[in-house]
């Protein structure tokens, strides 16, 4: 028994110490160094839509579901920077547009674009309305670019107005099918209705 107590006391005295009179510990926990900078991290740049080229030789491959090719998925290959930029703009504005649609201030037109639907909150606050109209303008510009670049995949010429209208109608049908309950959509006759 005495030997056991002596061994316990020796192990207690020879164990790793914490540097104070507390119970010894062999665990060392080092506090990580933290450096605060004014620059964004790569994940922050990605989340807020600030993109940079990863490599000079990088290929850009993305997909755009247009329905134009009899239900097939059209893909963007070999670095179509205009199309990729338009897709990124739509991704960047996706949550904002969803919130505006939930408010009832943005609706899906029957030509594939979005439109402002007057709402008291925005009519009486020019700053809110300016931000909203900028988002709508950027979204519609991105959608038009997607229409043009998707149509140009099959030919070298710029698409005609008729081809753009036809593509826009198909795109509008897809967007209206994806719309949530109570979203404003414009039917074929141009009347605004709430999706049921």
Please give a handful of descriptors for the protein shown.
196 residues; alpha+beta; 4-stranded mixed β-sheet; two-stranded antiparallel ribbon; 6 helices; 6 strands
Task: Please explain how this structure is put together.
This protein is α+β, with helices and mostly antiparallel strands. The chain has a domain at 82-194. The protein is 46% helix and 13% strand. It is built from 6 helices and 6 strands. The strands form 2 sheets. Strands 4-3-5-6 form a 4-stranded mixed beta sheet. Helix 3 (81-103) packs across helix 5 and helix 5 (126-152) crosses helix 6. The longest helix has 27 residues, at 126-152. The N and C termini lie far apart (83 Å). Residues 50-78 have low confidence and may be disordered.
Overall strand count: 6
Task: Give the terminus-to-terminus CA distance.
Answer: 83 Å
Structural class comes to alpha+beta
Judging from the principal axes of the Cα atoms, what is the shape? elongated
Strand order of the largest sheet: 4-3-5-6
Mean pLDDT: 76
| Helix fraction bin | 40-55%
Secondary-structure element pattern, one letter each: HHEEHEEHHHEE
Largest sheet: 4 strands, mixed
Radius of gyration: 29 Å
Strand content: 5-15%
Number of helices: 6
Low-pLDDT ranges = 50-78
Walk me through the topology.
Elements: H1 2-14, H2 42-47, E1 62-69, E2 72-76, H3 81-103, E3 106-108, E4 114-116, H4 120-123, H5 126-152, H6 161-178, E5 184-186, E6 192-194
Parallel strand pairs: 3-5
Antiparallel strand pairs: 1-2, 3-4, 5-6
Helix pairs in contact: 3-5, 5-6
